[in-house]
Amino acid sequence: MAAGWPPVDIIVDILSRLPVKSIMRFRCVHKTWSCLFKSESFIIKHLETSKNNGMSFVKYRNSIYSDNNNTLRLLNDDTYEDCSDNFPITFKSCSGLVKVVGSIHGLICLCDFKREVRDSLVYGSKIFLYNPSIRQQKLLPVSNFTRPKKKDVRVGSVALGFGYDELNDDYKVVRVASLRFNVGGEKIFENQAEVYSLKMDSWKEVGLKDCVNLDFLQDQACVGGAIHWLASKREGRFMNKYNLVVCFDVSTEEFRWFQLPDCVVSVGEHRLRRIFEHKNSLCLINISWVDYFYYFHIWVMKKYEVHESWTKLTSAACYGASKKLLGIGIYGELFLQTYVGSDFESAASSWDYYFGDSNDFFK
């Protein structure tokens, strides 16, 4: 080492605190640095440091007129102001509309979510991974999902999830389809599930025995190394309300599910139910709308998979125009999308359910 240079461990510690954008620029400083940035030990150290620095929110803007106007931006977790340049999305969707499935370690999973023709979401939909720091994207290969050899097969719903396999250091995408077909005049329902491995760059089918229905428009919640969705279970000819939580263990690639407790699902008339991750815990929000007021009842599972640990944080009301719940922040803020004018002219605001302060941040 040249005289005057600090010790190697100090240099590594300093570099691990830099944003990815700076690290990508510094690859050309020295061959040793370029090799360091690719090493597994440095990547792990940088990820751990990034976790301690808080989180950023992904702001995605769709254009219904042109794929060229679809952009991503990152928002600061304290001020909700833009902390990055525009990240243009060159992904060509069938409908011009793209949904953010989830994000982990700076990787963002997006998909073409509008179903133009029957079964398009299951048999040929587009999914891709995007790294905004280096502005690279990867279109996932076409699924080898095989249609069941039965007549009149229809797709009831499709759910997607994006998670990280810590045991195998792999990123995975899971897709679950609820199928319906006729056998002897009787309607039969079953699920098909598959998982994509980034390391293997391929899909494979996984088992899901119970017949559940997952809403493809709802969000996922990643907690405890598993992806979670709200689900309904078929009982005879009818589906119950979304009173179940279906879990997919990203490492073992196994499904399990548990019933939401009565204290959570039986309080009031709820038009909507959403699940999120909040401070490494499952967070459930029941939503109702009465006399132009939106009511939010917020629950948290304080001990993972311990049903008795479901605790109600608060109930709150918000007055105003039609709103969509986007998520919950690390400080307990609710992120709401307010529709103004046409459906496509929308803004979003953060609203602290403890104090009722509103702060518009999507413009």
UniProtKB/TrEMBL annotation:
Domain named F-box: residues: 6-46
What domain of life does the native source organism fall in?
Answer: Eukaryota
The beginning of the lineage is: Eukaryota, Viridiplantae, Streptophyta, Embryophyta, Tracheophyta
Which CDD domains does the entry link to? F-box_AtFBW1-like (cd22157)
Which InterPro entries does the record associate with it? F-box-assoc_dom_typ3, F-box-assoc_interact_dom, F-box-like_dom_sf, F-box_dom, SCF_F-box_component
SMART domains from the xrefs? FBOX
Name of the featured protein: F-box domain-containing protein
Transmembrane stretches, by residue range?
none
